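REQUEST FORM: STRUCTURE PREDICTION
Request ID: SP-0412
Submitted by: Lab K.M.
Chain count: 1
Length (residues): 397
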Amino acid sequence: MAPLSGVRILAVEQLMALPFGTQILSDFGADIVGVEPVGYGGDEAVPWRMRTGRYKRRISVKLNSPEGQDLIRRLVHTYDVVVENYRPGVMDSYGLGYKALSEVNPRLIYCSVSGYGHRDVLQSPHTDLAAYGPIGEAMSGYTHAVLQSGGSRSVGALGDITSSMFATVGILLALRDREQTGRGAYVDVAMADALFALAELPFTQYTASIDAPRKQGNGAAPGAGLFLTGQFPAADGHFTMILINPRHWAALCALMGHPEWGEDPAYTAIENRAAAGETMRPIFLEWASKRSKHEAARELRAAGLAAAPVMSPADILEDEHFAARRMVARVRQPDGSVVRVPGDPIKLSTVEAERNGDAEPVPIARPGEHTRSFFHEELALSDREIDDLIAAGVLAD
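STATUS: Completed
RESULT:
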């Protein structure tokens, strides 16, 4: 039995900000029913659908119709969780917000993910503003940190995935709280908040410099006290190395043919470390230029240093770590094609022991694929009733 077997979730979700989190819950046994609006015409080949559609049923309901709203309210009695990531106010306008549905089912856990949060818990003056992942990154300080470090933009759906993970944690906390108290709860996650938590280091360094400037280390520039650290070019790409203490520095000095530098305070004293790294840099770059990124990382690791090649998607597909950790999953698209996607990073001993790494690809459902069977089972609607609702545009099959 999976850890979340018996947990039933109605997911009024779109794009990536919630589907990533409900995928984690689904992988561990929760019954996820994706509720999509009638007429949904999303591109079924988009990466987020392939990544977040495993083990989920999909139904199509006209949420902005009284009949569709009534169907959702009838379902809420038997569901543990409702999740949604629409713009604040949309679900309330449908009569399907937290307050309305908690009156139907006081034990209901309701989770919302949005740019700046909803009004029900802590209201932001930005609540009604539109937001996508890059907007949350800009608002949270994350983009500033990227630009300050010489980058131009982040890669990947950081805002979506980060907020989705916090939503998942919130749902699990609320389920545990309900076990103890019998009451439901509203889980409200703002993308700006989630990314602010992700970008906490530059903020904490800044506040430490202005709030407590006399404490040791405060006010130092990011990276002060580090030796040679960052991304470096190799013969065929780049690798990353982190040197944060004298032991690491001594190991690198020995590898580079200068063991005497490893014990010399002129290099190891904290105020001299940045300069020591610059002294070492040309020697190190010359050494790295004669090696591939994988060779450089292997030699550095063998010397006891923290290093890794900068991996491309092609590298990841061939890497033993990701294979051993079952981090590449296979899903079957509605057209029959099989696509490899990232797996679940959470490894639970009791679950992994039962999983088959060579199992058949998991099928991804089509929009509305389960509408008919779902309403047969959940509300005991007859074929005639379902046909009438489809004809009226309330459901889509």
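NOTES: The longest helix spans residues 158-181.
Reviewed by: T.R.
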